[in-house]
Write a structure and sequence with these properties.
Layout: E1 15-18, E2 21-24, H1 59-77, H2 93-107, H3 110-127, H4 133-144, H5 149-169, H6 171-175, H7 183-199, H8 205-216, H9 227-241, H10 267-272, H11 305-321, H12 328-339, H13 360-374
Length: 376
């Protein structure tokens, strides 16, 4: 029985500098990620009656059904005694809230909007002005569904204050906290920060974008736990916030050798090269390493949920930025693969086909990906 690789953010404390003082975060930080032993979870196929059928004549119905299952579960499991976060995953509230916003946009179910807003209130209270990247992204998503000027000021005020405070005290200093972070985790959080910074037109938004590119150059199979996930989420953010042009990703050659000669315009093509081809095991999903191996760990080489979620989001974002890219088929097959990871209870698993652990966070991320797929 081989191990599954965990893509869950394992939380640990981090010290950052903000507002001219050293702030030891009292909440747990999802900066560091690690591999968890999943030998307790047998790698057998998920029961067919627990998977969303892809043979239904109307695929849109299957997508909506999956979204409703996930969102219903997330809304039901949100706990008032935890301040309206989710059990065991308070530090990951941002990804869940953003997912519920996507579910609300598609279904117009007010319960999902209310759940997302309660989660946003939790973020504002708990973060005390110092947001994780996915929390920043969640707040801009709440702005996009705000139904009153008052509530919109509530969300945008927290975000604007955050970026202004970081800029005032030194954006480079703030971003430098990621230098000791596992590179793919750093890229995940910076990608979310970048999208939020551009949405609120932060004065230092270009610094955030440049930092994301810089940290991406540190990602490779040797240094990073989740290289393809990092490439996917970086592509998602960069395609939304500027041109994917002939700019070299690593012009000084100080990063990993993988990025030598790579240009921003190459990112979608490289991401596409990591999609599992038709006829192979877990076709439509993505490999988790650039070399398509298992890194000597004995894990399956593909089919993991977070890799597929963020790679799919990356392809969708790149296609929207440049519809001339031939990505429609890849996005479609990736979306079909994602549907395998949702069971009849709305649980989302670590692996799209294999029995494995489930977390609310993966549900939130899945909602984001499926929501964007429906907009294609």
């Amino acid at each position: 029985m081989a191990n599954l690789k965990s893509q869950f953010f394992i939380l640990s404390s981090v010290v950052v500098t903000l507002l001219g003082q050293t702030l030891a975060l009292s909440k747990e930080s999802p900066i560091d990620r690690t591999i968890v032993d999943f030998t307790a979870y047998q790698q057998t196929q998920i029961d067919a009656d627990e998977a969303i059928s892809l043979q239904e004549p109307n695929l849109t119905n299957s997508i909506v059904d999956a979204i409703v299952r996930i969102a219903d579960r997330l809304e039901a499991k949100q706990e008032s005694y935890l301040g309206w976060s989710w059990p065991g995953e308070a530090g990951l509230t941002g990804s869940i809230v953003a997912g519920l916003v996507s579910a609300y946009e598609l279904t117009n179910n007010r319960a999902y909007r209310t759940s997302a807003e309660l989660g946003g209130d939790y973020i504002l209270r708990n973060a005390q002005g110092n947001f994780y990247g996915d929390e920043a992204f969640a707040l801009i998503r709440l702005m996009q569904i705000s139904i009153s000027p008052f509530s919109n000021r509530w969300w945008i005020g927290g975000m604007s204050d955050f970026y202004w405070d970081v800029y005032s005290e030194g954006t480079y200093d703030y971003i430098s906290q990621f230098t000791s972070t596992e590179p793919s985790a750093a890229v995940f959080y910076l990608a979310n920060y970048v999208v939020a910074a551009y949405y609120v037109d932060a004065v230092d938004k270009e610094i955030w974008r440049a930092a994301l590119i810089g940290y991406l150059t540190q990602v490779d199979d040797d240094s990073s736990d989740f290289p393809v996930m990092a490439l996917g989420v970086a592509t998602w953010a960069l395609a939304q916030t500027g041109p994917l042009d002939d700019t070299l990703v690593d012009p000084l050659g100080t990063g990993a050798a993988y990025w030598n000669g790579v240009k921003l315009v190459d990112l979608p093509k490289i991401l596409l090269s990591h999609q599992v081809p038709d006829g192979e095991l877990y076709a439509g999903s993505f490999y988790w390493r650039f070399d398509h191996g298992d890194g000597g760990k004995g894990y399956p080489v593909s089919g993991y949920t977070e890799d597929a979620i963020f790679a799919t989001l990356g392809l969708i974002s790149a296609y929207r930025a440049n519809p001339a890219l031939d990505l429609e088929t890849a996005i479609f097959t990736a979306g079909q693969a994602l549907l395998n990871g949702v069971n009849n209870e709305g649980k989302v698993f670590e692996h799209l086909w294999l029995e494995s652990q489930d977390y609310y966070t993966w549900g939130g991320e899945m909602l984001q990906a499926l929501g964007e797929w429906t907009k294609q």
